[in-house]
Protein: 16S rRNA (uracil(1498)-N(3))-methyltransferase
Amino acid sequence: MATRCELASSAGERMTTRPSGGSGRLALGRDGAPSPWAHGPRAWRWRTSRMPSRIRELLKPPQLNAVKTDSTSYKELPEFLELQLSAPSEQLPWPAPPPQVDLLLVPPAFDRFQRLLPQLAQLGLGRIYLCKVPGGPRVFGCHLLRSPELLRAELLKGLEQCGDTQVPEVLQCNLRSCLEELADDSLRLMAERGPSAPLPLPPTLGRCILAVGPEAGWREEEEALLKEAGFQGLCLGVRPLTTELQVFAGVALADAV
Structure:
């Protein structure tokens, strides 16, 4: 299932090359946007005169490479660049859908939290609720949470690893306000220590929200609030686990439910 780039001139000449990537798309930037009259459902055409000079230099025909020129003029290139897929678009491989899981998290200490952010993005989470509880680590107010750009940069590191483009939404709240914002049709699970036990699941499920608390465990009043909001215990075994391991194991189990 290969893709091909065809350089078509106004005189009808064609020179076929293969792009370096296998995604079936050619990113040219705003100046090289495809023309609105792209012909066919799986073919795109770009006017070469609108492309940036660095792109025109890359597309210069091989016979012109031996000629040293300061820049590549429009006349040295075919009039249009045509990108055409050799297979129907419905046969192209698409990434698997992300888990339908959101996370309610009491974050660990700052250095661990910063390392955890890219990993949370790799998991494909939709929303991440950062929950502030009494006695928790002093993460709230750190520079990452004060700057959306820095927070987004950490999340993008994880998306680059897994090839995803959906950036998780990160919200900061206390436990009570977070519980009020959750969707009514969501399956609500909270990670806890203990032997495994089957979950009584409702007949229809929407998204799943997983709550991961402090490593020392939820306090009694916090656990009561979670159970009152409909959270069920998701047992991760009898061993004490770090916050990171609770998140990874909990998301995997919640996605398999």
